[in-house]
Amino acid sequence: MTFNSITDIPGLRVGHATDVARGTGTTAIVFDRPATCAVDVRGGAPGSRDTELLRPDKTVQTVDAVVLSGGSAFGLDACGGVSAWLAENGRGFAIGSMLVPIVPGAIVFDLLSGGDKAWGRFSPYRDLGYQAAAAATADPVPLGTVGAGTGATTADLKGGVGSASAVSASGHRVGAIVIVNAVGSATIGASGHFWAATDEVGGEFGGRGLPSPWPADAHALKLKGARPENTTIALVVTDAVLDKGQATHLAVMAQDGLGRAIRPIHTPLDGDTVFAAATGVVPVADYARDMAAIGFTAASVLARACARAVYEADALPFPGALPSWRQIHGGR
Predict the structure, then answer these.
(1) What is the Cβ-side half-sphere exposure of residue 311, based on CA atoms within 13 angstroms?
(2) Left, alpha or beta for 50 (phi > 0: left; psi -120 to 50: alpha)?
(3) C-alpha distances in angstroms, 221 versus 87, 164, 192, 306, 319?
(4) pLDDT above 70 coverage of the chain, percent
(5) Which pLDDT score is estimated for 226?
(6) In the 8-state DSSP scheme, what is residue 130?
(7) Is 319 exposed, middle or buried, given 0-12, 13-18 or 19+ CB atoms closer than 10 A?
(8) Which residues contact 202 (CB under 8 A, 6 or more apart)?
(9) Do the bridges between strand 62-69 and strand 105-107 make them parallel or antiparallel, or are there none, so unpaired?
C-alpha cells in the first residue's frame, strides 16, 4: 500500500516539531542508513547548511538526515539538534573513533508570520530539531500547517508542508516533501485553481483542474512583498542507485516542479533549494533513459507536493494572518 507520501520510499522516516505559539517549526527527514545526497540552489536569498559538502567532488558521499526548518538563519540551529539525536543513536561519518552525523539543511523565513519570536538569548530550533528527529516515523507525512510549514505563506494564501509520491516509468519510486513559503502564488489568479493542476492525481488537491474560462488575472504578477520573507525548500528521494553527480542532475530536473507549481519562482527574494537523495536499493539499467524517467517523475511529484502544501494548510491564529485556501475557496 502507498500513501502518496515521501515515506512511500523505503528507508526513510519524517518527523515534525511544531510550535504554534511561535508560529514556526522544523521538519527532519532521517535515513535508516546513509543516503547519497546532492542539492540544487536557485533564487537570490538562500539559507542553508553544508550544501557545499554535497557537491560531487567533495569527499563525503552520503548523509544521515536532511533538515527543513523555519526560523530564517536562526533555524539552521535545528541541524544541530538532529545531529545530537543521530549521535545518541550511533549514527555518523566515521573519523577515527568519532562518528560525525552529516546533516545538511535549509531554512525558510517565517519570522514575520506571527507568534512570539521573543525567545531570549538562544532560539528554540536546536530543541525543535531534536524533537523532529526523535518523532520521525515511516507513517504518511502530516501536511499543511505543521513542522517547518507552520509559519509558511505565499503571496496570497497560507503555505505549508506538502508531500507526494509516484513510481517512474523505469520502475523506481520517487517521493517529495516541500515547504512552500514562496514570494509568488500557487494558484491561478483569484480562481483557486492550482498551477500544478496538470500533474494532479486523484483529486489530491481538490480535483478542480484548470479554470475555464481562463481568468483575466491569470498572468497578473502576485508577490508577497518587497522583502526577503520567502523561499521554497524541498527534498526529493528515489530508491534508485545514484552517485552524487547523478543525484545532482536529479535535483536540477526536480526544480522544474517548482516552476510548474509556483509563479513567479527563483526570484531575488526567494532562496529556493531542492535536495535530491537516493537510497540506493533499485539498480539503474539504462542510465540515460532511467534518469529521464526518474527526473520527469521527480518534477511531477514536487509540483503536486507544492499544491498539496497550500491545499492542506490552515491559517495561523494570529491577527492579520493570511487565510488558508479552504477559507477562501471552500472545503476539501
Answers:
(1) 24
(2) left
(3) 46, 27, 15, 19, 26
(4) 98
(5) 64
(6) H
(7) exposed
(8) 4
(9) parallel
How much is the pLDDT for 330?
84
CA 282 and chain centroid, separation: 24
Round to whole Å and give the CA distance between 279 and 292.
18
The pLDDT value given to residue 328:
95
Residue 194, all three cell numbers: 492550482
Quote the pLDDT of residue 228: 61
DSSP code per residue over 181-193:
--SSBSBSTTS--
Q: Is CATH 3.60.70.12 the classification given to domain 6-327? A: yes
Nearest to 41 by CA among 227, 264, 254: 254
Neighbours of 191 (CB within 10 A): 16
Give the residues of the chain that fall short of pLDDT 50: none
- The amino acid that residue 82 corresponds to is V
Pick from 28, 94, 41: which is nearest to 67 by CA? 28
pLDDT of residue 44: 85
Please tell me what DSSP assigns to residue 5: S
Distance CA 154, CA 223 (A): 8
Q: Where are the domains of the chain?
A: 6-327
82-90: Cβ within 8 A, 24+ apart: 82/28, 82/30, 82/129, 82/130, 82/132, 82/133, 83/129, 84/126, 84/129, 84/130, 85/129, 85/130, 85/133, 85/134, 86/30, 86/133
Q: Between β-strands 12-19 and 24-41, what pairing exists: parallel, antiparallel or unpaired?
A: antiparallel
Q: What is the pLDDT of residue 31?
A: 98
DSSP state of 256: H
Residues constituting the chain: 332
* pTM summary value: 0.97
